[in-house]
Amino acid sequence: MAENNPTPTPNETQPTPQGNPAPAFDYDKLASLITGKQSVTEDTVLKSYFKEQGLSANEMKQAIGAFKEQKAKNTPDIAKMQAAIDTANSAKTTAEINQSAVFEAIKQGVDVASIPYVLKMADFSAVITDGKINTEKLTEAVKKVLDDVPALKKTADNSAGVQKIGGDGNGTSDGTKQNSSVPTKKWNRFNI
């Protein structure tokens, strides 16, 4: 009552024939054969397509060359684009630093006409930390320039506010008294 079971159960191992060893495959060689067959097939398909279009072998080569040139022209140059981005970011950072430095110079009492000189003399190399403007270092850079060249600050006569314009009403523009040796009567025609 024992029946022969032609299908092995998962726990049983299948016996291998002793006389014939399993054939060994060189997978690299097999892959190169498949790749070669695919490229020959692709070439054949392309040639038949161009023949259907009425192109000769030379025209086909020229068409492929023109296609490759066009593809090369349309391919973006990543290095050039990255350089442009870096240049734009550098210009943006410089503009932000200059803007902040102008505000800081005005806060510290620099004359508006002197601000470009302050910006040129200040050392802003340490102002950027972690991609952000460090306002303390910016203030220090502007203060250092003003300490080195105090003439860049506003003076008392350049200050804003109410300034005297014109004469004082006594006939002089500088606020001094008139010379008493000149007659002041209106009937004197020599009184100018």
How many individual β-strands? 2
One letter per element, helices H and strands E, the order comes to HHHHEEH
| Computed CA radius of gyration, to the nearest angstrom | 46 Å
Question: Order of strands across the biggest sheet?
Answer: 1-2
How many strands, which pairing sense, and closed or not: the largest β-sheet? 2 strands, antiparallel
The oligomeric status of these chains comes to: single chain
The percent of residues in helical segments reads 40-55%
Report strand %: under 5%
Low-confidence region ranges? none
Mean pLDDT, to the nearest integer, reads 77
| Structure class | mainly alpha
**What is the tally of helical segments?**
5
Principal-axis shape equals: elongated
First and last CA, distance: 153 Å
What can you tell me about this protein's structure?
The protein has 192 residues and is mainly alpha-helical. The chain contains five helices and two strands, in the order ααααββα. It has a two-stranded antiparallel ribbon with strand order 1-2. The radius of gyration is 46 Å and the shape is elongated. The mean pLDDT is 77.
